[in-house]
Prior knowledge:
Radius of gyration: 27 Å
Number of domains: 4
Strand content: 5-15%
Distance between the termini: 80 Å
Oligomer: single chain
Number of strands: 12
Strand order of the largest sheet: 1-2
Order of helices and strands: EEHHEEHHHHHHEEEEEEHEE
Structural class: alpha+beta
Helix content: 40-55%
Amino acid sequence: MQVKSMYIFPKAHDDSALCCCEYINEDGERSHILAAFCDCEAIDEAFERLVTWKPVEGQTYQKMMMTLADRLRIPWRGGAKQVPLDVCCAFSLFPVILLLGCISWLMSFISYLLILPVVIFSIHRFFRKARVLEEPFISGSDRAKHGGRYPRTQFFLAWLMISVISLIFVYYTQVITYLKISPYENLLLMIFICIACTSLYIVKVTSYAGFEPRVLDDEGMYGEAIESGAWQICIECAKQVPRMASHCRTCDSCYLLRDHHCIWLDTCISTVNDRWFVIGLLFSLSSLAYGSLLSLTTVCHPRLVDMYFTIVLLPHQCPDAFSTFQ
Length: 326
Protein backbone atom coordinates (compact mmCIF):
# COMPACT_ATOMS: atom_id res chain seq x y z
CA MET A 1 0.00 0.00 0.00
CA GLN A 2 1.39 3.38 -0.95
CA VAL A 3 1.36 6.13 1.65
CA LYS A 4 1.17 9.70 0.45
CA SER A 5 3.51 12.13 2.06
CA MET A 6 1.93 14.69 4.33
CA TYR A 7 4.48 17.32 3.24
CA ILE A 8 4.14 19.17 -0.03
CA PHE A 9 7.39 20.55 -1.35
CA PRO A 10 7.27 23.59 -3.66
CA LYS A 11 8.39 23.07 -7.21
CA ALA A 12 11.73 24.50 -8.19
CA HIS A 13 11.67 27.29 -10.74
CA ASP A 14 12.34 26.16 -14.28
CA ASP A 15 15.03 28.62 -15.35
CA SER A 16 15.18 27.12 -18.83
CA ALA A 17 11.69 28.47 -19.49
CA LEU A 18 12.81 32.04 -18.87
CA CYS A 19 13.53 34.29 -21.81
CA CYS A 20 16.67 36.40 -21.93
CA CYS A 21 14.95 39.36 -20.23
CA GLU A 22 13.09 37.49 -17.48
CA TYR A 23 14.26 36.46 -14.02
CA ILE A 24 13.05 35.24 -10.65
CA ASN A 25 13.03 38.17 -8.21
CA GLU A 26 13.75 38.15 -4.48
CA ASP A 27 10.09 37.32 -3.73
CA GLY A 28 10.26 34.19 -5.90
CA GLU A 29 8.08 35.71 -8.61
CA ARG A 30 8.64 35.85 -12.34
CA SER A 31 9.63 39.36 -13.42
CA HIS A 32 10.96 41.30 -16.42
CA ILE A 33 13.89 43.74 -16.62
CA LEU A 34 11.67 46.38 -18.28
CA ALA A 35 9.70 46.56 -15.03
CA ALA A 36 12.77 47.55 -13.01
CA PHE A 37 11.19 50.71 -11.55
CA CYS A 38 7.62 49.42 -11.32
CA ASP A 39 5.80 48.18 -8.23
CA CYS A 40 8.36 49.30 -5.66
CA GLU A 41 7.04 51.03 -2.56
CA ALA A 42 10.52 51.95 -1.34
CA ILE A 43 11.42 53.83 -4.53
CA ASP A 44 8.03 55.59 -4.61
CA GLU A 45 8.36 56.65 -0.97
CA ALA A 46 11.94 57.85 -1.42
CA PHE A 47 11.02 59.86 -4.53
CA GLU A 48 8.04 61.38 -2.77
CA ARG A 49 10.17 62.42 0.20
CA LEU A 50 12.78 63.96 -2.07
CA VAL A 51 10.13 65.99 -3.91
CA THR A 52 8.57 67.18 -0.66
CA TRP A 53 11.99 67.97 0.86
CA LYS A 54 11.71 65.34 3.58
CA PRO A 55 14.61 63.18 4.77
CA VAL A 56 14.70 59.60 3.55
CA GLU A 57 14.68 57.12 6.41
CA GLY A 58 17.47 54.59 6.75
CA GLN A 59 15.18 51.58 6.41
CA THR A 60 13.63 52.98 3.25
CA TYR A 61 17.05 53.68 1.78
CA GLN A 62 18.28 50.17 2.64
CA LYS A 63 15.18 48.53 1.16
CA MET A 64 15.48 50.65 -1.98
CA MET A 65 19.13 49.64 -2.46
CA MET A 66 18.24 45.97 -2.00
CA THR A 67 15.50 46.29 -4.59
CA LEU A 68 17.80 48.03 -7.06
CA ALA A 69 20.48 45.39 -6.51
CA ASP A 70 17.95 42.64 -7.24
CA ARG A 71 16.54 44.31 -10.37
CA LEU A 72 19.82 45.50 -11.85
CA ARG A 73 20.25 42.81 -14.52
CA ILE A 74 21.33 42.35 -18.11
CA PRO A 75 19.71 40.10 -20.73
CA TRP A 76 21.25 36.63 -20.81
CA ARG A 77 20.46 33.25 -22.24
CA GLY A 78 18.29 31.29 -19.82
CA GLY A 79 17.30 34.37 -17.83
CA ALA A 80 18.59 37.84 -17.02
CA LYS A 81 21.83 37.84 -15.03
CA GLN A 82 22.24 40.03 -11.96
CA VAL A 83 24.95 42.70 -12.07
CA PRO A 84 26.46 43.76 -8.72
CA LEU A 85 25.59 47.33 -7.84
CA ASP A 86 29.20 48.28 -7.04
CA VAL A 87 30.43 46.90 -10.40
CA CYS A 88 27.74 48.88 -12.22
CA CYS A 89 28.84 52.00 -10.32
CA ALA A 90 32.42 51.50 -11.51
CA PHE A 91 31.31 51.04 -15.13
CA SER A 92 29.24 54.25 -14.89
CA LEU A 93 31.83 56.50 -13.23
CA PHE A 94 34.85 55.47 -15.31
CA PRO A 95 33.75 56.88 -18.71
CA VAL A 96 32.63 60.12 -17.03
CA ILE A 97 36.07 60.71 -15.51
CA LEU A 98 37.76 59.65 -18.74
CA LEU A 99 35.72 62.00 -20.94
CA LEU A 100 36.21 64.94 -18.57
CA GLY A 101 39.96 64.56 -18.96
CA CYS A 102 39.71 64.77 -22.75
CA ILE A 103 38.51 68.39 -22.79
CA SER A 104 41.72 70.31 -22.07
CA TRP A 105 44.95 70.24 -20.09
CA LEU A 106 43.25 72.01 -17.20
CA MET A 107 40.39 69.51 -17.10
CA SER A 108 42.90 66.65 -17.26
CA PHE A 109 44.65 67.87 -14.12
CA ILE A 110 41.34 68.58 -12.38
CA SER A 111 39.82 65.22 -13.33
CA TYR A 112 42.77 62.95 -12.57
CA LEU A 113 44.42 64.83 -9.69
CA LEU A 114 41.34 66.20 -7.90
CA ILE A 115 38.02 64.60 -8.87
CA LEU A 116 39.26 61.02 -9.25
CA PRO A 117 41.12 60.81 -5.90
CA VAL A 118 38.18 62.40 -4.06
CA VAL A 119 35.68 59.97 -5.62
CA ILE A 120 37.83 56.89 -4.93
CA PHE A 121 38.60 57.98 -1.35
CA SER A 122 34.94 58.79 -0.64
CA ILE A 123 33.81 55.38 -1.86
CA HIS A 124 36.54 53.72 0.17
CA ARG A 125 35.51 55.57 3.33
CA PHE A 126 31.86 54.72 2.70
CA PHE A 127 32.59 50.99 2.70
CA ARG A 128 34.89 51.34 5.72
CA LYS A 129 32.17 52.98 7.78
CA ALA A 130 29.45 50.55 6.69
CA ARG A 131 30.51 47.73 8.99
CA VAL A 132 28.52 44.53 9.10
CA LEU A 133 27.83 43.92 12.76
CA GLU A 134 26.72 40.43 13.63
CA GLU A 135 25.92 41.60 17.17
CA PRO A 136 24.26 45.05 16.95
CA PHE A 137 24.00 45.41 20.74
CA ILE A 138 27.79 45.84 21.05
CA SER A 139 28.68 49.47 21.72
CA GLY A 140 31.43 51.67 23.10
CA SER A 141 34.97 50.31 23.35
CA ASP A 142 33.75 46.76 22.60
CA ARG A 143 32.49 47.95 19.21
CA ALA A 144 36.01 48.95 18.22
CA LYS A 145 37.28 45.60 19.42
CA HIS A 146 34.52 43.38 18.06
CA GLY A 147 33.32 45.89 15.48
CA GLY A 148 32.13 43.31 13.01
CA ARG A 149 33.65 43.12 9.59
CA TYR A 150 33.95 45.43 6.62
CA PRO A 151 31.62 44.63 3.71
CA ARG A 152 33.36 43.25 0.65
CA THR A 153 33.03 45.14 -2.62
CA GLN A 154 34.03 44.49 -6.21
CA PHE A 155 34.10 48.21 -7.07
CA PHE A 156 37.87 48.67 -6.93
CA LEU A 157 38.61 45.38 -8.70
CA ALA A 158 36.15 46.32 -11.47
CA TRP A 159 37.73 49.79 -11.69
CA LEU A 160 41.19 48.24 -12.01
CA MET A 161 40.10 45.88 -14.79
CA ILE A 162 38.31 48.65 -16.70
CA SER A 163 41.37 50.88 -16.40
CA VAL A 164 43.75 48.23 -17.75
CA ILE A 165 41.46 47.32 -20.65
CA SER A 166 40.83 50.98 -21.52
CA LEU A 167 44.53 51.89 -21.46
CA ILE A 168 45.42 48.99 -23.75
CA PHE A 169 42.52 49.86 -26.06
CA VAL A 170 43.54 53.52 -26.30
CA TYR A 171 47.17 52.51 -26.89
CA TYR A 172 46.37 50.20 -29.80
CA THR A 173 43.68 52.37 -31.40
CA GLN A 174 45.17 55.84 -30.94
CA VAL A 175 48.93 55.51 -30.40
CA ILE A 176 49.97 52.59 -32.61
CA THR A 177 48.16 54.11 -35.60
CA TYR A 178 50.75 56.91 -35.80
CA LEU A 179 53.37 54.27 -36.75
CA LYS A 180 56.08 55.98 -34.68
CA ILE A 181 56.68 53.13 -32.23
CA SER A 182 59.09 50.39 -33.24
CA PRO A 183 58.12 46.70 -32.87
CA TYR A 184 60.81 46.24 -30.21
CA GLU A 185 59.38 49.05 -28.07
CA ASN A 186 55.89 47.62 -28.43
CA LEU A 187 57.15 44.11 -27.56
CA LEU A 188 58.91 45.39 -24.43
CA LEU A 189 55.75 47.14 -23.26
CA MET A 190 53.65 44.01 -23.84
CA ILE A 191 56.14 41.94 -21.83
CA PHE A 192 55.85 44.37 -18.91
CA ILE A 193 52.03 44.25 -19.09
CA CYS A 194 51.89 40.45 -19.29
CA ILE A 195 54.23 40.01 -16.31
CA ALA A 196 52.29 42.56 -14.26
CA CYS A 197 48.87 41.04 -15.02
CA THR A 198 50.13 37.49 -14.44
CA SER A 199 51.71 38.41 -11.11
CA LEU A 200 48.59 40.17 -9.84
CA TYR A 201 46.46 37.25 -10.99
CA ILE A 202 48.67 34.87 -9.01
CA VAL A 203 48.26 37.14 -5.97
CA LYS A 204 44.50 36.86 -6.35
CA VAL A 205 44.26 33.09 -6.77
CA THR A 206 46.88 32.10 -4.17
CA SER A 207 45.46 34.09 -1.27
CA TYR A 208 44.63 31.75 1.60
CA ALA A 209 45.30 31.47 5.30
CA GLY A 210 48.47 29.41 4.78
CA PHE A 211 48.22 27.22 7.89
CA GLU A 212 46.25 24.24 9.17
CA PRO A 213 44.56 24.38 12.60
CA ARG A 214 45.99 22.10 15.24
CA VAL A 215 44.04 19.02 16.32
CA LEU A 216 42.02 19.22 19.54
CA ASP A 217 43.15 17.14 22.52
CA ASP A 218 41.00 14.63 24.39
CA GLU A 219 39.26 17.34 26.38
CA GLY A 220 38.42 19.35 23.28
CA MET A 221 40.95 22.06 24.10
CA TYR A 222 44.13 23.43 22.55
CA GLY A 223 45.96 23.38 25.84
CA GLU A 224 49.33 22.08 24.71
CA ALA A 225 49.45 24.22 21.59
CA ILE A 226 48.43 27.37 23.46
CA GLU A 227 50.86 26.79 26.32
CA SER A 228 53.76 26.46 23.88
CA GLY A 229 53.17 30.04 22.77
CA ALA A 230 53.26 29.20 19.06
CA TRP A 231 49.46 29.25 18.72
CA GLN A 232 46.71 31.46 20.05
CA ILE A 233 42.93 31.90 19.94
CA CYS A 234 41.81 34.71 17.65
CA ILE A 235 39.46 37.14 19.41
CA GLU A 236 37.59 37.96 16.19
CA CYS A 237 36.81 34.48 14.81
CA ALA A 238 37.50 32.35 17.93
CA LYS A 239 39.72 29.96 15.97
CA GLN A 240 43.14 28.56 16.74
CA VAL A 241 45.76 30.42 14.70
CA PRO A 242 49.56 30.79 14.80
CA ARG A 243 51.04 33.55 16.94
CA MET A 244 52.20 35.43 13.81
CA ALA A 245 48.73 35.39 12.23
CA SER A 246 46.31 38.31 12.26
CA HIS A 247 42.61 38.67 11.46
CA CYS A 248 41.25 40.52 8.42
CA ARG A 249 37.89 42.15 8.99
CA THR A 250 37.16 42.25 5.27
CA CYS A 251 37.94 38.60 4.46
CA ASP A 252 36.73 37.55 7.94
CA SER A 253 39.66 35.14 8.22
CA CYS A 254 43.16 34.94 9.72
CA TYR A 255 46.31 35.02 7.59
CA LEU A 256 49.87 34.13 8.49
CA LEU A 257 52.18 37.18 8.43
CA ARG A 258 49.39 39.28 6.99
CA ASP A 259 50.47 42.65 5.65
CA HIS A 260 47.25 44.34 4.54
CA HIS A 261 44.04 43.84 2.56
CA CYS A 262 44.44 45.13 -1.00
CA ILE A 263 41.14 46.71 -2.03
CA TRP A 264 42.15 46.83 -5.71
CA LEU A 265 42.49 43.03 -5.86
CA ASP A 266 39.96 42.35 -3.08
CA THR A 267 42.35 39.97 -1.39
CA CYS A 268 44.75 39.84 1.54
CA ILE A 269 48.50 40.13 1.11
CA SER A 270 50.30 37.67 3.36
CA THR A 271 53.33 35.41 3.39
CA VAL A 272 52.01 33.24 0.55
CA ASN A 273 51.63 35.98 -2.07
CA ASP A 274 53.60 39.02 -0.93
CA ARG A 275 56.49 38.37 -3.37
CA TRP A 276 54.12 38.17 -6.34
CA PHE A 277 52.41 41.32 -5.11
CA VAL A 278 55.69 43.28 -5.10
CA ILE A 279 56.61 41.92 -8.55
CA GLY A 280 53.18 42.90 -9.87
CA LEU A 281 53.52 46.43 -8.47
CA LEU A 282 56.99 46.93 -9.95
CA PHE A 283 56.03 45.76 -13.42
CA SER A 284 52.74 47.67 -13.27
CA LEU A 285 54.65 50.85 -12.49
CA SER A 286 57.12 50.09 -15.29
CA SER A 287 54.27 49.45 -17.73
CA LEU A 288 52.51 52.70 -16.84
CA ALA A 289 55.70 54.77 -17.04
CA TYR A 290 56.93 53.22 -20.29
CA GLY A 291 53.48 53.28 -21.89
CA SER A 292 53.05 56.94 -20.96
CA LEU A 293 56.48 57.75 -22.43
CA LEU A 294 55.64 56.02 -25.72
CA SER A 295 52.21 57.67 -25.90
CA LEU A 296 53.43 61.19 -25.12
CA THR A 297 56.36 61.01 -27.54
CA THR A 298 53.90 59.89 -30.23
CA VAL A 299 51.25 62.55 -29.64
CA CYS A 300 53.62 65.40 -28.74
CA HIS A 301 56.61 66.74 -30.64
CA PRO A 302 59.58 64.73 -29.32
CA ARG A 303 63.20 65.67 -28.95
CA LEU A 304 66.33 63.53 -29.04
CA VAL A 305 68.29 63.06 -25.82
CA ASP A 306 71.68 61.34 -25.76
CA MET A 307 71.90 58.90 -22.85
CA TYR A 308 75.20 57.06 -22.68
CA PHE A 309 75.23 54.64 -25.64
CA THR A 310 71.74 55.27 -26.96
CA ILE A 311 69.38 58.02 -28.05
CA VAL A 312 66.04 58.38 -26.28
CA LEU A 313 62.95 60.23 -27.51
CA LEU A 314 61.28 62.43 -24.88
CA PRO A 315 58.11 64.55 -25.22
CA HIS A 316 58.93 68.19 -25.74
CA GLN A 317 55.95 70.27 -26.89
CA CYS A 318 52.25 69.35 -27.03
CA PRO A 319 50.45 72.44 -28.38
CA ASP A 320 47.94 70.50 -30.48
CA ALA A 321 47.28 67.60 -28.10
CA PHE A 322 43.68 68.75 -27.48
CA SER A 323 43.02 70.19 -30.93
CA THR A 324 40.66 67.29 -31.72
CA PHE A 325 38.63 64.95 -29.55
CA GLN A 326 40.72 62.02 -30.69
